[in-house]
Every structure is written in structure tokens, then in C-alpha cells.
Amino acid sequence: MIDSRLDTASADFQARRAAMLAKLRDLDAEQAKAVAGGGPKYVERHHRRGKLLARERVELLVDPDSPFLELSPLAAWGTDFPVGASVITGIGVVEGVECVITASDPTVRGGSSNPWTLRKTLRAADIALENRLPLINLVESGGADLPTQKEIFIPGGRIFRDLTRLSAAGIPTIALVFGNSTAGGAYVPGMSDHVVMVKERAKVFLGGPPLVKMATGEESDDESLGGAEMHARTSGLADHLAVDEHDALRIGRRIVRRLNRRKAGERGGGGPQDVRAPLYDEEELLGIVPEDLKIPFDPREVIARIVDASEFDEFKPLYGASLVTGWATLHGHPIGILANARGVLFSEEAQKAAQFIQLANQSRTPLVFLQNTTGYMVGKDYEQHGIIKHGAMMINAVSNSTVPHFTIVMGASYGAGNYGMCGRAYDPRFLFAWPSAKSAVMGPAQLAGVLSIVGRASAEARGQVYDEAADVAMRQMVESQIESESLPFFLSGRLYDDGVIDPRDTRTVLGLCLSAAGNAPVPAPAGFGVFRM
Amino acid sequence: MIRRLLVANRAEIARRIFRTCRDLGIETVAVFSDADAASPHVTEADHAVRLAGVRPADTYLDIPAIVEAALKAGADAVHPGYGFLSENAAFARAVLDAGLTWIGPHPDAITAMGSKIEAKLLMAQAGVPVLPSLTPGPGGAFQPEPPGSARAGRQESGEPVFPVLVKASAGGGGRGMRIVRDPGALEEAVASARREALSAFGDGAVFVEPLLEDARHIEVQILADTHGTVWTLGERECSIQRRHQKVVEETPSPGISPGVREALFDAAVKAAKAIGYVGAGTVEFLVKGATIAFLEMNTRLQVEHPVTECVYGVDLVRLQLEIAEGSRLPAEPPGAAGHAIEVRLYAEDPARDWRPQNGTLHLFEVPGVDARFEVPATGGGHATRPYGLRLDSGVESGSQVGVHYDAMLAKVIAWGPDRAAVARRLATALARARVHGLTTNRDLLVAVLRHRAFLAGDTHTGFLDAHEVTAPAVPPVPVFALAAALALAAGNRAEASVLGGLPSGWRNVASQPQRAAFEGPGGRVEVGYRLGRDGGLAEGPPEVRLLSATPGEVVLEVSGVLGRFAVARYADEVYVDSALGSMRLRRLPRLPEPVVLIAPGSLLAPMPGTVLRVEVTSGAPVVAGQPILTLEAMKMEHQISAPAAGVVSALNVTPGRQVEAGAVLAVIEEQQ
């Protein structure tokens, strides 16, 4: 059991908490933009047409009072497109089955897809495939955003391929069509296992009346080309004809009920009987991470507030102390944890990590990475003692480990530390960031400093006088650009994580993701690459 | 001495008699119909004999079967309870002929009082005041009135003065009884009362007497031994009635003068002596001002006997048994102490014409009960008298209430030093009772007990019509619905097959509250709630704070006052009980199935029953209000009439057909 030394009465704690709360207010404000959809005017118009909002559809689809984890809510943040990327994706429980749900938001530019919509949708399909979660599409989309078609058309084909590959893998795909799903969009129901269409609302055709008129001269109308009645009675594209939206959601739930899903990798955990709350208040997670990431913090204070009963069996506590490793359970799920303690990874830490990851693979135990790293140590001594080899061992172990990985970026995620601690490129099942996180090749000041040193050296080599004033300006500009591009909203907007979460939700989010991952079978033992000793 | 007693009855009265038998060391024998095989009265008896069938005529009214059961079980005495065969002289004779002891008066006394027409004649002769009687003969003419009666009920022409009451001569319990205010309706009322009486009692004789409106219904308990001693054990006021059936009874009566009381006692003793009565019996009177009129004599134990037992400190069943064994009553009856009120809890819907309810009684709990089937003795060493709360119940949690028998679930009796205190105790006990599964008259009873007029002692047979008590005030629906929703949410979490350990309704991006909808007392009610990190309400009514929620109990602070809401769920029915009151809510599905359309003009069966008569043929034109068919359910006739003029476009039933509630009986195609 972890004995917390956090002094919640201290000024430091209060300052850290205040700073975190300010960041959370910003997070709420950004997420509120996604929730607002196309704004009051379009929401009102949508309701007036007797239609449910995308989020209302999702809420009615999932089991009452069950949790729902929305994924990538800040997608498209910092781009020309609205926050949320006009689609909602997430993991919810339908008839006791964990499913990936995607719902296009027709109040945002008619629910049309932009490049970020595409990336968010593809990420949701990846999650469905990797964790073997049924995929439910709540369809009402005006198709591609034509001005950005060059970013969508060619890669967008993967949407349809994903659907049939999910089906081929035995993962059910369900399309509930509430409105337009035309042209390319028609292949969403077309490629799905189960299709429900709402009477007098669904419109599914390759080409509408004007296009048909142009192509063949045939006179036609929406209903005969793609109405729900036609598809249910004539074409057979619709398996179920719903009388209205509520009926479609009801039928959708009935379909899931009859999928007879079993969780292949279930190893216990997740139930109310498994809840042994941490001994320390999750609320205190707000006051742990310093605003200045140069100041280290003890990750055991975090672990004590997210694992069951604050029980943590530490592995090699006396060796490679700037990486904390150990075993725990979270909502009853057994896990191994790797957490950075003092930012820097030395050779010992890298070797300890490689051993720990192998042990977790031997016992098929999922791994949680709690990132706060400035990277692998540099310097003559370290290079000579093989820091590259040892870092490579750790990256080898992370890359080839087959147990599910879950990454939380609490603070810094710099350099190859991002890789060794299972950053986005290492395909953890899920990756979430705290509002305090920063990810970049190195710290903004360091990066600016490096550019300055390199620039100065280059000038000197050419025999030029280095412009010190320009250097100051350059450093400031680079520092602020790198700073802004290493912040979590920016990275979340580019889909480099699955969402920015409130630190107090960490245990809940991990509990949900561990349970979701249990839908896929326990992985086969890992075969690692050659370890360079 | 009686060694083994068979009770030719069911439900609470059988249990009541068994209780006394256990006290006395008498073995008990129950009889039961197939519908009652699992009833408490069967499991509590030492021996039990099945009466094959479910209809009363095949079971509790089957004299040879019951006598055979008594012989088979080795019983040496038979107690008839009340209702069923309790006032059937042929049954008493059959019991005696079989060599068994009959707990009741001599069959001749039963016969004398069995026909109301005869009884009135006899009583008039004995000097007991009676109302004039008019006996309709064939063709609607009225037979001469009995000698000794006043002429007040008739005009000189011999026609009755309206309003009048049509009563079955063999009647009881309101069956075969009709109030007639319009001379034109008399013929049909007599015919229908005859049919009902014939079906219920096997005797279609009816008579007509003036209706004494808003009178008090007061009865006198008498007890007579075989040695000539006749006691009166006070009067019982039973004025509060619905459909001529008593629902609230008390002793002493709050509204009669000592002079009237004396006159009643005197008349009761005269009545008993006139027929050589032996055992426990009750003489019923109508009282209005100083006018008293003999109604009938019940030659058996009354439903409402517990109030007399409480106030007089006696066990009437024990006295019945001892009299049957030949014991002598003391010369003087015991003295009275305090006041007692009984209410009859029925499975019926006062708001829908007292329609009887049937189904599973999921939960039945009355808090603070001091005694069951006996006089409470809870006073300990401190109280001068052991007052308390008594429950005589025929059902337990989980009992099935069927369509075949009386819908009375239980009697709740409070006894205390004075009437107001007793009414308060009883009202509170009823209000806090948990009665789940069936609509009952509980709220009505509470409303009566708390009504100003009742507390003032202003009770009469028209009480329920005169006062608005059938639709009592309902507690705040939104708070109850919220409590129900929060308990259901806790249940949803507890039952979740995945992620059950996560916080209820957790969202990383909250966009809207959880919503739950119910059908409540005032129609559809929808509540929204979202739980916060601390388990409290992050979204919900501002005046409500959530303190805790489990599937069975929700604790809310409403406008600063803490309240506990016990919540129970049975399929879609949700019951919420609290100190603020009780409420039944029906959970409405979030995603309802598309509605099956019922053809306009369809006539639906209002309850399960048997089609008695079909008055029209398919294709026949009908006018608005025209009777289409008659349904018999719960021993009552229910007429189904055309809602509007039109043509019978479909007729789905024939006489004798059993129908479920909601079944389409016929379709009337409306015509302009």
C-alpha cells in the first residue's frame, strides 16, 4: 500500500490545483463548442424537423446510467474546422455489450466530413478492430466537404474497407440510417452487417435525381432512388424499417442483444464487487503536477489515487529509481505500471523497463504507462555506457509487447522518452493526456537553444557575425511556437491522443478502457526483436 | 369438548378462527379451493382438505363437499366464518346431521332471519321497529305490505315513494341491491337485482323499501348462551360504506344519544329472544335522528367483530366455541374501555367505480402492528389499558389475489383511549403501510380517517358521496419520480454486466442529464438527473440534494428536510413509500415499441370476466348508450354500452366467453 506524502494544505499543492482547475475550465470551454454542434440556430432547426441531435441519439442508444467515453472530442481543434470535427465517437454499453459508437452531427455543415472527421472516424474503427468491439454508425451525413476533397477522397476509401474488414474479423457492424447517406456515404449501410433505416427520413442512393437525369436522362425522385421503404421492400439494403428515430434506436438495441457477444479476453474485474476505491481522494490528483514541468513529482502519489485500495507492489524499487514499475489492480483488472519519477531515463531505467515489460508479457498483464519524461540521458559518460543500446532495448520491448498498453501523458513527453513510454506511434490501445501534458521532440527552451547554438556555429563557420538581436527574437518565436504545438489541445486536435481528460477521471477512463480491451482475446506471447546487450 | 374444528371459509376469517383454536388447543382443519392452495390459511392449519375447483359454488358453497371434508379430516365441529355458508340453514342442518358440532345458532333461527322479507315480518311482530316493505310480484305489481309496518313508504295509490331501495331477500354484501330514484327505472332494477341475487345466493326474491338516505348504519353485537343469558356487547357504527359494503367500522358510535343506544340494545335483545337465538349475532339498524329501523339480523360472526373484542376485552370466537360446548355466560357482560376503529383494506380502485383488482400482492407491510387476530396487549406495566394496533389479514407479501372471491385484503384495527387518538394512529399506520402490486382503497381510508367530518363524528351511509375522498391529495410527484429514477439508476448499475463498477452515468463530455419517464398519478412525468463526482446531483431540481441512493432506498434532502424514500420495483411498476406518502409509478420505456392501432369505436373489456349476455347482433344499428353486452366479473354485472350511434361492425364474443382485460369485445362503426 502506498503511503502518500502529499501535503494537501501546502501552498505548492494549492497553486498546482488552482493551475490545473484553470486548465480544466479551458477544457470545458473547448468541449462545450463540440457539444454545441452547429449552434442554436441549426440545433433548433433540427429539433423542429422532429429529429434528435447526434448526442441525443447516442444517449438513447446506450444503456441507461451506463458510462460513455467520448473519444477525440477536441478533434480539429486549432484548424479551420469546428471543434469535434462534426462527428461524435466513443465507447458505450448497449444491451450490456461494449460498442464503438459513431454519430455524425448533422447540425454542423450538414454532418459533412472534413479531413479531421475522417481521421476521427478511422481512429474509432481502429479501436473497434483492435478491441473487437461492435461498431454502430448513426448515419446522417451530407457527404464529403468538397473544398477539402483532396484530403478526403483518396484516404477516405478506408472507411468502407474498415467496415468489411471488421465484419470479416467477426466484429459486427451496424448502421442506423437517420437521414442522408448518399453517394460514397451509401456504402456505409452497404458495407454494414445490419442496416436499419428510418421511414421517410433515410435517403440512401449512389446518385440523386439530378445526377441520374444527367447520366441517363431518367426521371426519378428521392424515394424511388433511396427511400427507406424502397430499401426495406425492394432493394433489400435495409434489414429493418423503423417508423421513427426512437424506433430505429430500439431496433438497433435489439440487434445488439441478439449478437450473443462474449468477452474473449475477460479475466474478471469491472463489476461493482471489484470496486475497492483508492484510499486517497481522486480529487487530490489536481494538485500533484507542477505547472513548471522542470520540477519533478512522485508518480506514486498518482498511482495511490488511481489503483484499487492504493495497493501497489513495486518491482525493483531500489534499481533505476527514476522509473517506477510495479503491479496493481484497477477496477479489479490486473495491471503493470511504468511511471517516470524524475523525468530522465538512464540505462538502468531502460533495462528495468525492458525486463518489466517482458514479465508483463509472460503473465499476460496489461500495461499502463504514466508519462512524465524528458527523454533518455545524454552526455559522454552515458553514450559511452551504451544509453542508445539500453534505450533501444526498452523501445524493442515496448514495440513488440503484445499485452494491451494504455498511456496517460501526465506531464512532459519529450524526445525518445515519448517512444520508450509508449507514445502514439507505438499504438497503445488508448492514449489520453492530462491538461498539464506537453509533448515535443524536446522542451521549447531547449529546442530554441539548440537552434541558437547551431545557428551561431554555422555563422561562425562562415565567418559571419551572429545577429544577437535576431537570435533573441528567433528564440522567442520558436519557443512560443513549440510551446503552443506541444500543448494537449493542439495535439488532441490532430488526433495524437484519444482525448484530454480530467486527472480525476483517470481511474474511470482506465477502468473503462481495460474492460473494453478485454473484448479481444488475451494476446499470444510476444516475440521480441534481438536485444542488443 | 371440541377437539378438531373445521373452518368452512378462507382468508382472514379462517386465520382468525385458527388463532383462537391454537390458544385453546383445538386442532384446525382448513378447506381450500384450487385458487387458494397456497394461501396462508391453508399453510397455517393443522390439516387441510382440497375442494376441487375455483368457483365458490364448487368449493366454499358446496355443502356435501365440506361436510365430507370435515368427516374425512376427523373434525368434530364446524365454524362457518362469515359470508359463504355462514347463514345457510341447510348447511347448519347438514353439519348437525353428520353428528358434528355447529358453531352458530339453531338452523331455525338462521331460516327465520335468512329471508329478509320474513325477518322483517317477524321483527315487526316482536315489537322491533321496521321500515315498510313492498314486495314486487309478477308483472311489477306490489304485494300487500306486512302488518305492523308504517305506511310511510307508499302513496295512497299503493305505489312506492321514490327513492327506493331494491334488496335481495337472501342478500348481503350489497349484491342484488339497487337504488332507484326514477319510477321508470324500477322494472329494470328489479330484474337485474333478481338476476344478480339468483347468481350470488341461488334465490331471486327481492323486495323494495323506502331509501332512508344519509342515515347511520348501527348494529348491536349480541351473545346468547344455551341457558337463556343474552348479552349486548355495545353497538358498532358501520355507516361509511361503498356499494352498500362497509369500509370503516367503530365502536362506540360517535353520534347517538344514550336514549337511542338504550333503544337499540333493547330492540336487539327483543330480536334475539324472539327467535331463541344462541351464539354470536348482530342486529343491524338504520338510525336517523331518533328514528331507528331494523335492517336485518346476521346470525353469525361479523367481519367487524374485532372492534368489539378490543373495547370489551373479549375473544368472540372463543365465546362462540364455549357456548357451542354448552358453557354458561356470566350474568353480566364485561365493561367497555376506550374506542376502536376498523378499516377494511380492499384491492379495489375507488377512482374507477371501486373496480376490484387482481394479481400479485408483491409486498404487504403495516408498520407498528401490535397483535394479529387478537386484542393487542402492548401496554406493559405502565399503561392502565393495553391499547394498540391489530391486523387481521388474509394475505401476506407475495399472495395472489384472484377474481373469484371478495377483494378484501385485510382489516386494520386501532384501539385507544379516545376516538381522535385512535383515528390518528390508524391513519398513520395505513399511510405508512407498504402495499405493492394492487391498487387499494388505502388512500381513501386515510382520507376518511383524517376528514374533518369523520373526526366530528358526522358519519352516515352517504359519507363517501358527500365528501371528496375518492381522489385524495397526492404527494409531490416530481420528487417521488426523482427518487424512483435514482433507485432504478442504482439498480441499473448493480445489475450491469459490464462496467458496473464505474460511476453511474459517467461522461467525460457531459451534454445532457439521464432521463427517466413514468406514468404517475397525474399522467406522464419526466425527470432528469446527472450524478457528480461526489455522488450527489450535478444536475437536477435545485431544491433537492441527493444524500444516498441504493436500489431499495433513496435519501433526499428536499428544501432542507431530509426524507427517506423506500423504492421497490416489480417489472415496470415502481412503488415509492415515504413519510410524505406512497406512490405507484409505471416506468415508461425510453424507446417504446410502435403502438398497435386499435380500430376506432372498439369496445374493450374493462376487466377480465365472462360475457353474460350479448344484446345485439353483428350489423345491427345501435343508438348511443344502447347496451351491447353484459360482462360478469367479480360477481358483478358490468354493462358495456355503445359510446355513440352507429352500426355493430364486429362482434367478437358470445355468451359464456372468458375475456381478458383490454380484449376487443365489439366494434361500433360510428355513423353521422
Automatic annotation (TrEMBL), chain A:
GO terms for molecular function: transferase activity. The lineage of its organism: Bacteria, Bacillati, Actinomycetota, Actinomycetes, Streptosporangiales. SUPFAM superfamilies: ClpP/crotonase. Keywords: Transferase. InterPro entries: AcCoA_carboxyl_beta, ClpP/crotonase-like_dom_sf, COA_CT_C, COA_CT_N, MCCB/AccD1-like. Gene3D superfamilies: 2-enoyl-CoA Hydratase, Chain A, domain 1. Residues 20-271 form the CoA carboxyltransferase N-terminal domain. It holds the Pfam family Carboxyl_trans. The keyword Transferase applies. The keyword Transferase applies. This is Carboxyl transferase domain-containing protein. It comes from Sphaerisporangium flaviroseum. It comes from the Bacteria. Residues 26-281, 277-524 form the CoA carboxyltransferase C-terminal domain.
TrEMBL record, chain B:
InterPro entries: ATP-grasp (IPR011761), BC-like_N (IPR005481), Biotin_BS (IPR001882), Biotin_carboxylase_complex (IPR050856), Biotin_carboxylation_dom (IPR011764), Biotin_COase_C (IPR005482), Biotin_lipoyl (IPR000089), CPAse_ATP-bd (IPR005479). The keyword Amino-acid biosynthesis does not apply. Gene3D superfamilies: 2.40.50.100, ATP-grasp fold, B domain. Its cofactor is biotin. Residues 1-469 form the Biotin carboxylation domain. Residues 594-669 form the Lipoyl-binding domain. This is Biotin carboxylase N-terminal domain-containing protein. Residues 120-325 form the ATP-grasp domain. PANTHER family: BIOTIN CARBOXYLASE (PTHR18866:SF126), CARBOXYLASE:PYRUVATE/ACETYL-COA/PROPIONYL-COA CARBOXYLASE (PTHR18866). Keywords: ATP-binding, Biotin, Ligase, Nucleotide-binding. Residues 134-157 are annotated as: Disordered. SUPFAM superfamilies: Glutathione synthetase ATP-binding domain-like, PreATP-grasp domain, Rudiment single hybrid motif, Single hybrid motif. Signal peptide: none annotated.
